[in-house]
TrEMBL record:
It comes from Chryseobacterium arthrosphaerae. This is 5-carboxymethyl-2-hydroxymuconate Delta-isomerase. It comes from the Bacteria. SUPFAM superfamilies: Tautomerase/MIF (SSF55331). CDD domains: CHMI (cd00580). Signal peptide: none annotated. Gene3D superfamilies: Macrophage Migration Inhibitory Factor. It holds the Pfam family CHMI.
Length: 127
């Protein structure tokens, strides 16, 4: 936790490499101090087929999923930090946006949480 999934048009990757884009998101998330560095996960999915409005040629959107418990101000700062970094990196992008959503702790599960040896329900158990 957190997970940042970047969706973009394929041609965005002609402007910057996937690593440059993912690093910008990772470093932005890290700079907020909201997450343990080892917990941040970033993925990128380019799209060949998409439809946009008139005169718009490409897009990039970041879906951020974080564990509940941060304030609206913290989530807003995170979103703006990522958007600012990506806007500087990709000034020619037609659409560039970020949204942050929360995982509900009560409905979240992972491999550590289902481990019978994890008596304290630590989601980082054994990692």
């Amino acid at each position: 936790m957190p997970h940042f999934i970047i969706e973009c048009s394929q041609d965005i990757l002609q402007q910057k490499t996937p690593d440059e884009i993912m690093d910008a998101v990772y470093e932005s998330a890290e700079s907020t101090g909201l997450f343990a560095v080892n917990d941040i996960k970033v993925r990128l999915q380019p799209y060949t087929y998409f439809r946009l409005g008139d005169q718009k040629k490409n897009f990039l959107h970041v879906f951020g999923y974080i564990m509940e418990g941060r304030s609206t101000e913290q989530k807003s700062h995170l979103s703006k930090q990522i958007c600012t970094q990506l806007t500087a990196l990709l000034p020619e992008a037609s659409f560039l946006s970020v949204n942050i959503s929360e995982f509900e702790a009560a409905t979240y599960s992972n491999k550590a949480l289902i481990n019978p040896e994890n008596k304290n329900q630590n989601r980082h158990f054994g990692l």
